[in-house]
Amino acid sequence: MAARNAFYAQSGGVTAVINASACGVLETARQYPDRIGTVYAGRNGIVGALTEDLIDTGLESAEAIAALRHTPSGAFGSCRYKLKGLEENRAQYERLIEVFRAHDIGYFFYNGGGDSADTCLKVSQLSEKLGYPLQAVHIPKTVDNDLPITDCCPGFGSVAKYIAVSVREASFDVRSMAATSTCIFVLEVMGRHAGWIAAAGGLASDERHDLALVILFPEQVFDPERFLRAVDEKVRTHGYCSVVVSEGIRGADGRFVAESGSRDVFGHARLGGVAPVIADLIKDRLGYKYHWAVADYLQRAARHVASRTDAEQAYAVGKAGVEMALKGLSAVMPAIVRTSDSPYRWEITAASLAEVANVEKKMPLEFISADGFGITEACRRYLRPLIEGEDYPPYAGGLPDYVTLCNVAVPKKLAASFSV
């Protein structure tokens, strides 16, 4: 069997370790030159495939590819671009197959979250209908940790570590100033429907670090009166309070507390910033002086404080994705299976994309404390291993030394262009 080329693309919000998955894909593919020819990367994700803007990763040195393992963000560019359903816009999917056929691409590796899993499944289904042989594998990634089946999502462990560290350090800061200055600190974290990242803030307080924390989860209806009582009690007891709030909290009317009214390309409501809303509520009702911050891109770009567990898992799913494709599997996702909590052990299995696509995993209610403002011991047992270990990047001149690839374009073979 002659070697066929592969296509790899990054999708959605990038993470501190998505390039580690890219490294796993590329290094593993290079070990099978008799099966996989050139791995092309889509410039700016799936848009690169639609516009035939492909990058020849074969022109990158082994050293540059290896350096991806400790470099944050998306080395080839990502995108927020959701393909519609097959019946709504079949032309998009047919265009993908047309590009794949022109460049003899027999392997499709799509590195992203839930929307990417759906796209990967649909591409696999259409390739079968059109009689075009293609092994389509979804490589999991999302800081939201909301993909089903897999124990955790690569990208989440590092965000969780960053948030836990930040909340602990900021709490030490506000505690030291509370007597005569600020006594409230509010940190807004990502998480539209699932409170996994907010929950990670709860790790900041433990048996050795008794910190005054209040966490607001999207799984819990936001009740201003209950929240204010909880904050007031923390300040009266400890002198200060740190609040970790998920961007996706909703009121009793079902609306996002921070909803701005507009929507993004996926149809999701744009969230306008919940931290100042919560901080102003505290100031107006309780009179406490505050500071607030939005972790935003910092939480997902912080490779300098990445979790070693997360980095290892990100590489492993990239590697496993290639191996699954070479075994003839398609429409699957490498899923992480936890086999032990302590010591933490895990393995990888193939999950069907039919069971992954369009399914969102929220936090179990047993992970949220009875008062609704903290995490339980069960949640700690789940989270702790995911932030374990340090995996520092190399430093030069006092700063992380990250790689920037050449990203040389492949000559186009199709005469027709395609608008996105």
From TrEMBL:
Residue ranges annotated for the Phosphofructokinase domain, each copy included: 9-318
Cofactor(s) of this protein: Mg(2+)
GO aspect biological process, one term: fructose 6-phosphate metabolic process
Classification via PANTHER family: ATP-DEPENDENT 6-PHOSPHOFRUCTOKINASE 1
Pfam family, one: PFK
Pathway, per record: Carbohydrate degradation; glycolysis; D-glyceraldehyde 3-phosphate and glycerone phosphate from D-glucose: step 3/4
Enzymatic class: transferase
Originating organism: Methylococcus capsulatus
Family, per entry: Belongs to the phosphofructokinase type A (PFKA) family. PPi-dependent PFK group II subfamily. Clade 'B2' sub-subfamily.
Name used for this protein in its record: Pyrophosphate--fructose 6-phosphate 1-phosphotransferase
Active site: D144 (proton acceptor)
Subcellular location: Cytoplasm
InterPro entries, sorted: ATP_PFK (IPR022953), PFKA (IPR050929), Phosphofructokinase_dom (IPR000023), PKF_sf (IPR035966), PPi-PFK (IPR011404)
EC number: 2.7.1.90
Gene name, Swiss-Prot/TrEMBL: pfp
GO molecular function: 6-phosphofructokinase activity; diphosphate-fructose-6-phosphate 1-phosphotransferase activity; metal ion binding
Residues that, per the record, bind substrate: T142, V143, D144, M190, G191, R192, E247, Y297, L298, Q299, R300
Keywords: Cytoplasm, Glycolysis, Kinase, Magnesium, Metal-binding, Transferase
Record entry for activity regulation: Non-allosteric.
Main location: cytoplasm
